[in-house]
Amino acid sequence: IPPAPPPALRSPAGASLCLQVALEALQRSQSPACSRLCDVLIGQLAPPSPAPAESALVRGLQDPERSRLLEAAMAVAGPQRLRQLFQQQLKGRLQGVAAHRVANHGLQRLLDHAPADVVGEVLSELGPALAEPLARGHPGVLVALLGACRRHPGLQQEALRCLFQVGHAP
């Protein structure tokens, strides 16, 4: 595993952009270094918290500087890594993430790349509460969730049910 990027490389917007492009280039070249860099970045920006009530990933997604890099890492992370991030740091916290002005974009990236089981759990947890992110002006959460369900046909019926519930919300 390569050493973690120095803090100065993770903070400035230009450096973050360089790391985002590096992740994309490594993914396109199918280099094994892509998953290693992804793991290092996630480990540095959102390490697992020993306190079950806290989530470094949620805090990272809420931070405008760290969220872009976390989103880029989630875009290249494999299904197993996304499943792990969801189970350890997002499950049970989705309503707050979906309603947050910055963090909702990270949830959208997760949904863009998540395996069917993760999308199903997001749908179960967030589906009945989709009116809240919409009321806060975050329609991208609904669009990403419906797009993810479109890729996984077994979830389409439940997604339609949730969509109709949102359409009838007062």
From TrEMBL:
GO cellular component, one term: 90S preribosome
Key words of the record: Repeat
Annotated Pfam families: PUF_NOP9
Annotated GO MF terms: RNA binding
Gene Ontology process terms (BP): endonucleolytic cleavage in 5'-ETS of tricistronic rRNA transcript (SSU-rRNA, 5.8S rRNA, LSU-rRNA); endonucleolytic cleavage in ITS1 to separate SSU-rRNA from 5.8S rRNA and LSU-rRNA from tricistronic rRNA transcript (SSU-rRNA, 5.8S rRNA, LSU-rRNA); endonucleolytic cleavage to generate mature 5'-end of SSU-rRNA from (SSU-rRNA, 5.8S rRNA, LSU-rRNA); ribosomal small subunit export from nucleus
Top-level taxon of the source organism: Eukaryota
Gene field: Nop9
Entry protein name: NOP9 protein
